[in-house]
Design brief:
This is TraB family protein. The structure is a single chain. By secondary structure, this protein is an alpha/beta fold. The protein has one domain. Helix 1 runs parallel beside helix 3, helix 1 crosses helix 6 and helix 4 crosses helix 7.
């Protein structure tokens, strides 16, 4: 089943080729699900596909250190038979695939740091660009560590420690709306964001960081496919095309 056939196998307006790709490989398939953070259509897409596919492993665009906190969000929701309150589509993915191995494939990690520093040196990046890259990396590392600590406290006590950054984003549609309305709103939202980003100047530091992140995520997915077989990956919609092209 190729990337074009995959969406047609699930009758849901939120599951389309714009957001879903299946990349066949000799050792296994990688199914990519592109998401908009916290959007009802993205949450519904992840839930619908994972329940249909029932994968053995799910890769998430999360730092490995942050995964335990999202697992705690999903576990609390499962105990109450509800959708996770925190963590959006990532917690929803864990909740929808309770028996799957969960893997965090995003930065920061040692592979990412090594690649990023190598690129900065090889390109003779300006001091200002290097400073901004390091600053953003420091913030990401602190967030991952904070998530790990919050997960430790959550698992050791009876209370759920939620990060302020994990409070759900409010959109002009809800989980109670029909899938058709959710899908239409999500498509409009993505188009609007891309138009806005296309009108602003390129951020060199952001390009370095995100380009390196994508390289590392592709390598990790290739490794998982080679060692473990089929895998479903949930990634931001802005990374979907690049990762799909590299895996193909």
């Amino acid at each position: 089943m190729d990337a074009c056939e995959f969406p047609a196998s699930i009758d849901d307006p939120r599951v389309t080729r714009q957001f879903c790709r299946r990349l066949p490989g000799a050792d296994g398939d990688v199914t990519l699900l592109g998401v908009v953070h916290d959007h009802p259509a993205s949450v519904g897409r992840v839930e619908r596909v994972l329940e249909a596919v029932d994968p053995e492993r799910v890769a998430l665009e999360l730092p490995p250190a942050a995964v335990p906190l999202y697992e705690a969000y999903a576990r609390d929701a499962a105990a109450e038979s509800t959708r996770p309150r925190f963590g959006g589509e990532m917690s929803a993915a864990i909740r929808a695939a309770p028996d799957a191995e969960i893997v965090g494939i995003d930065a920061p990690n040692w592979s990412f740091l090594r690649r990023l520093l190598t690129r900065l040196v090889a390109d003779r990046a300006s001091a200002e660009t290097a400073r901004r890259v390091v600053s953003s990396l420091g913030a990401a590392s602190r967030e991952a560590l904070t998530c790990r600590i919050a997960a430790t406290v959550t698992n050791a006590t009876s209370m759920t420690v939620a990060r302020d950054e994990h409070e759900p984003i409010e959109y002009d549609c809800s989980h109670d709306d029909p899938p058709e309305r959710q899908a239409a709103h999500e498509r409009s939202h993505v188009a609007g964001v891309r138009a806005l980003l296309g009108s602003v100047a390129d951020d060199g530091a952001l390009a370095y960081r995100d380009g390196t992140r994508e390289e590392c995520m592709v390598d990790r997915l290739e490794s998982l496919r080679r060692e473990e077989g089929d895998v479903v990956a949930v990634v931001g919609i802005d990374h979907l095309e690049t990762i799909a092209d590299e895996l193909a």
